[in-house]
Each structure stands twice: as structure tokens, then as C-alpha cells.
């Protein structure tokens, strides 16, 4: 029996996940492939298209038929209306790259492209922690800090779909350098990259200097998971660094509470696993800075969906595409 | 001939304005009276009701008949759905005060209450600088800093109508004390109250110590207008203080650009008159901290409506009341 479905594709720095998602948000079929993000701009896009096409073929072979819609989530600020990626942290070659046009040419169907953090937020809104809520602030603490905003039950896009870059609010004017080129952004404190910077500063090391092996993963990269293990073993440095990250996370969350008066703040991403080591300093800032009545109405919770959140969200975005606002004159 | 209209009432710390506003936003009739904000909680509300009732009588006598709707804008965070004022900077006696219930009892008609900054934002959206725009951030720099947010063409209320407290985002974690009880808020730098604090700190004076007469108005109060006059005369201290306020205004605006990707940032209130002395440092921060593509899409402009903005906005709010969201369970 054929079942209506949408294709959700989520591209990360290392892997691409493609899934067939039912209209209720159930994952019916999923496959994973490499991102090949180091390739040339078009080759990276063509690799996405190839993996989408493979899933389309698999779905056909599996009796699912054609999807209702196709959504592709990619990192970096992008214009959801034109389908152009401005810049992507993991894809060096994408600078003002017309991703949607290229994907549609290679797939032969309409494609919706969306920022990965926005798609993830939609996944949590559809099937995760934010289900049934109307006003939600979502933060994903990964390599960088991504954000998604649900206001009045709708994803906020802004003028061209670049809204909700919540990792790039200033939390310390003369603060740590951020990968975005500015400094003192939330991302410079509450992401893998930010945490590494804090460790380096604390130890008086040069940027990207070698770190102790206990802070690294098996491939030798700085690892939030390794830092979390250290914190669990009462390592003073790890606890201090997470406390500092928690302070800045709390400063940003307090501002978001005063700005959005949300019901819920959802925190996901790899660093959400260390929330218990950040919570004390985070909540101290929230209590000090957010209006009491506003803070009382909002819960701060962890994301509910695992790695499937991205593909579920991309499918949601495909089924609920952004409506192009009328372009007002200048 | 009878003309359809709405009643807009705007209560400030000193005066109340009540106006009959046409469905196109034209002010047909306006009157002004004292706020008497130092009175007891109910007496302050009854004074508003009395002035509304007087305008209703005047309108009837003038042949306008009954209004379509009545909107009352008051300072301070309030729950627009329940009509309760949490706290109001100028009305000491209002603490969790059920304003709407009291007004409706005294006026005998349905009343919409709204935060004054939100109402002002609606005025600019309806008839001012933000006319026809869909994504707008509005800041009013007065005694404090008020905010309004238009997202996708709609005023953002959040869970209970306390959203858009844009003056209370943190711009300097260990910064100046703010009237809200926290510290380092935008309001602690870019409002009359914040500016006074900066002057006191710069001169090494105690809080609320006497200031030079050239910084005061005729009643002896610290005056942004007097400071603006000093700046126009190249007074070094005044220029330095406005440059500092501009820096923090720019830091906040950069964050708002990254969060909302708006078409427009509208700046109003008494301190908007000093924008030319703040613009250089403000724009330096915006250029440094906001994503280029986002900053390029947003203009930063002054509010277009004068003191009538509040009553026009209150009438708009009355004609477009917030819809109560379905209360989700916890």
C-alpha cells in the first residue's frame, strides 16, 4: 500500500542523512552517506542530489512511490526564498552559491532548502520537545551555535530567511573571537569551537596549540564529549570551563526570554549533554537578568530528538514551505 | 455624517492623551490630561477611565457616535491576555494590578490594554516609518528603553504579551545598574536614566548627585535635550557620553539584526534626537557584529510619528486585538 511521505535531507560537516518521512513525522526509511564538503561548490551540491536520488530510487523500489515534497537542510546562513547559501562553515567553496537551483536541476523536482538549525527546530516543534507549543526559542550547541525561533506557531525567517542566528548575539562586547569574524558572540563561549578557545585561554596556549589527550577524541580533535567525561570525574579545569560557558549561555537565554516571552527554551546539540555542568551558572544569570514573570513562564529543556531530528525537520520544512513575503519597495 | 473610529489612549508618566482615530489612522479629535501616576493603584486607573469617558462624551457631542473599539496603552510589562499590569516604572502602586477589569468596570465597554512601546510600534507600523513592512524592530529611547517587534506583519506578544522588552537585553555583563534591578541592560546605556548614570560615573559623582545646570531642564531634571544641545556645541563630555551610548545601541542592534533579519530598525523616543551623535559608534558595532548580508538588508531609521504615535497605535491595537493562543498543558 502506498503511503504519503516527504523526503528530508540533512547535510552536516561529515555525513548526509536522507530519509523518507511520513506525514505524521515517522521515519520510514533512512540512509547515510559522506558529505564530501571539501569538494568544489557544485560537486558538493551534486553529491547531495545523488544521495537524494538514491533515496528516491530506494523508496520507489520499496513501494513508497514519489514524495509529496523534498527538503534539504544545510549549514550556514542562506536565503530560503532565493535558495542561495551565503556562506557555510563546513563547505568552504559555498559563497553566495545558488544551491536550490543546482539541486533542482540534478533532481528534476522542486526542492526547499533551509538552514540546518531552522530545520532541526522544526523537527523538535513537530515531533520533539516543542510539540504543540507556540512560542519557542531553540538553540543547538554543536561545532557552532545554531538557532531556531517559533513565534505564534510559525518558524521565523525574517526578510530573507537569515533570521534566528542566535549564536551570534553579543554576550561580552570585548570577548573571545568568534568563527564568524566578530567577537564576544554566544558561539564563542557555548560551542565546541568556543569551549576550545576558553581552554586555550585558560591554559595560556596559542590558538590551535596541541591539547592534552584526555580532551581529545580518538581522531585527535578537541571533544566536548571528552570534556564532559572529565567534568564527570570532577576535573577542575573542565568544571570551570563549563561553568563559564553556562554563564554566557544564561546571559543569552535571559535576553531571549525578555525579547520573546517564550513558553519553552529547547537546548540540543552535542554540548547539551553537558547541561548539568552548566546549569548552575546559567540559571544564576537567568534569575538575575530576566523579568521574573517572564522567567516563571518559560521552561528550559533538552531537545528530545536525536540525530533523526534534522531529517524529520527537513521533511516538515518541505511540507510547510516558507511563503515569500511581498517585496516592499525602498 | 457619522464616521467609524476607534478610541486610542496613551498614558505616560506625566500626561494621558486620548484620541478619536479614524479607521485609516487619522486623528479626528484629541485631548490631554494629567496621569496622576503617584496616586493609589485604583485611583490611577479610575483617572484613565474618567479621561476616556470624557473623550467618549466629546465624541458623542461632536457627532462621532460610539467607537468600534477602545485601546489603552500603559507603561511597563503587562499580560495583554489577562489585562494585568505586572509593574510600571511610573506607577509605583501598580504591582500585578488588574487594569483591564477596572477600566472595563468604569467605562462599561470592552477595553484592550497594551504595553505602550508595543502600541507605539503599531502606530509606526500603521502610519509611520514601518508602514507596509513585515519584519521590523522598533526601539523607543525615552526615560527607559521600550521595544516592539513586528514579525511577518504581526506584533509579537509571546506567551502572555510580555515579549519585546528590547531594553533589557544584556549588552555588558558586568555593566551599569539598570532600573529593572539587573545590570548591563541596553536601557542602562541608551535611555535618559542610563545617560545620567554614565554622566555620574564619568564625573565620579554619587548616584543622583546634583549635576551642572547646563545638563538640566527648567525643572531641574537631567535632560537628554540639554545634553543634545551641549553636544551640538561640541561639549566634550556630552559627545563622549553619546558615543558610548551609541556603542551599546549598536551592539544591541547588531544582535537584533542577526536574530530577526529585519527590513527596518526604527528608533524613536526623546533620545532619537541625538542619533547623529551616536550614529558613528553605533554603526561601527553593527558593521563589526552583524552578518554582512543581514546588515545590508536592514535600514536604521528614525520614527516618523510624533507624540500622536501612541494614541494612533493604541487605536490600532484596539482594532486588531491579540488573539489568545490556546493554552498548552504543562
Summarize the structure.
In chain A, 36% of the residues lie in helices and 22% in strands. With 330 residues, the first copy, chain A, is α/β, with parallel strands linked by helices.
Write the layout of secondary structure elements.
Two copies of one chain form a homodimer.
Chain A: E1 5-11, E2 15-22, E3 27-34, H1 41-61, E4 70-74, E5 78-79, E6 84-88, E7 91-98, H2 99-107, E8 112-115, H3 116-127, E9 136-141, E10 145-151, E11 154-155, H4 192-202, H5 224-232, H6 236-260, E12 264-268, H7 275-289, H8 292-297, E13 299-302, H9 309-319
Parallel strand pairs in A: 1-4, 4-8, 9-12, 12-13
Antiparallel strand pairs in A: 1-2, 2-3, 5-6, 6-7, 9-10, 10-11
Protein described:
The structure is a homodimer of 330-residue chains. By secondary structure, chain A is an alpha/beta fold. Chain A has two domains: 5-121 and 309-319, 2-Layer Sandwich (Nucleotidyltransferase, domain 5); 132-302, 2-Layer Sandwich (Nucleotidyltransferase, domain 5), CATH 3.30.420.40. In chain A, 36% of the residues lie in helices and 22% in strands. In chain A, the strands form three sheets. A five-stranded mixed β-sheet of chain A has the order 3-2-1-4-8. In chain A, strands 11-10-9-12-13 form a five-stranded mixed β-sheet, with helices on both faces. In chain A, a hairpin with a 4-residue loop joins strand 2 and strand 3. The longest helix of chain A has 25 residues, at 236-260. The first copy, chain A, is globular, with a radius of gyration of 20 Å. The model of chain A has no long low-confidence stretch (mean pLDDT 94). At the A-B interface, strand 10, helix 6 and helix 8 of A face strand 10, helix 6 and helix 8 of B.
Amino acid at each position: 500500500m502506498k503511503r504519503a511521505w516527504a523526503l528530508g535531507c540533512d547535510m552536516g560537516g561529515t555525513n548526509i542523512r536522507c530519509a523518507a518521512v511520513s506525514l505524521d513525522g515517522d521515519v520510514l526509511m533512512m540512509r547515510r552517506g559522506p558529505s564530501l564538503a571539501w569538494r568544489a561548490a557544485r560537486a558538493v551540491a551534486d553529491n547531495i542530489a545523488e544521495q537524494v536520488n538514491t533515496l528516491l530510487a530506494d523508496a520507489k523500489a520499496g513501494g513508497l512511490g514519489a514524495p509529496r515534497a523534498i527538503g534539504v537542510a544545510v549549514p550556514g546562513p542562506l536565503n530560503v526564498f532565493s535558495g542561495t547559501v551565503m556562506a557555510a562553515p563546513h563547505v568552504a567553496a559555498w559563497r553566495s552559491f545558488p544551491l536550490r537551483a543546482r539541486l533542482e536541476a540534478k533532481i528534476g523536482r522542486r526542492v526547499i532548502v533551509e538552514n540546518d538549525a531552522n530545520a532541526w527546530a522544526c523537527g523538535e516543534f513537530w515531533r520533539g520537545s516543542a510539540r504543540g507549543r507556540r512560542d519557542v526559542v531553540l538553540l543547538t550547541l554543536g561545532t557552532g551555535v545554531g538557532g531556531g525561533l517559533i513565534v505564534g506557531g510559525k518558524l521565523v525567517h525574517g526578510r530573507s530567511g537569515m533570521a534566528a542566528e542566535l549564536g551570534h548575539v553579543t554576550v561580552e562586547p570585548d570577548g573571545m573571537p568568534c568563527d564568524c569574524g566578530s567577537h564576544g558572540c554566544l558561539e564563542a563561549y557555548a560551542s565546541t569551537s568556543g569551549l576550545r578557545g576558553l581552554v586555550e585561554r585558560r591554559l595560556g596556549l596559542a590558538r590551535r596549540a596541541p591539547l592534552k589527550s584526555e580532551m581529545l577524541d580518538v581522531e585527535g580533535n578537541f571533544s566536548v564529549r571528552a570534556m564532559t567525561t572529565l567534568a564527570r570525574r570532577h576535573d577542575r579545569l573542565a568544571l570551570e570551563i563549563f561553568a563559564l560557558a553556562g554563564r554566557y549561555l544564561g546571559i543569552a537565554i535571559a535576553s531571549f526570554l525578555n525579547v520573546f516571552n517564550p513558553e519553552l527554551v529547547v537546548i540540543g546539540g552535542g554540548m547539551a549533554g553537558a547541561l548539568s555542568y552548566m546549569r548552575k551558572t546559567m540559571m544564576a544569570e537567568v534569575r538575575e537578568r530576566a523579568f521574573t514573570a517572564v522567567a516563571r513562564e518559560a521552561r528550559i529543556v533538552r531537545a528530545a530528538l536525536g540525530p533523526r531530528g534534522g531529517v524529520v525537520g527537513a521533511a516538515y520544512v518541505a511540507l510547510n514551505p516558507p511563503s515569500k513575503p511581498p517585496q516592499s519597495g525602498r
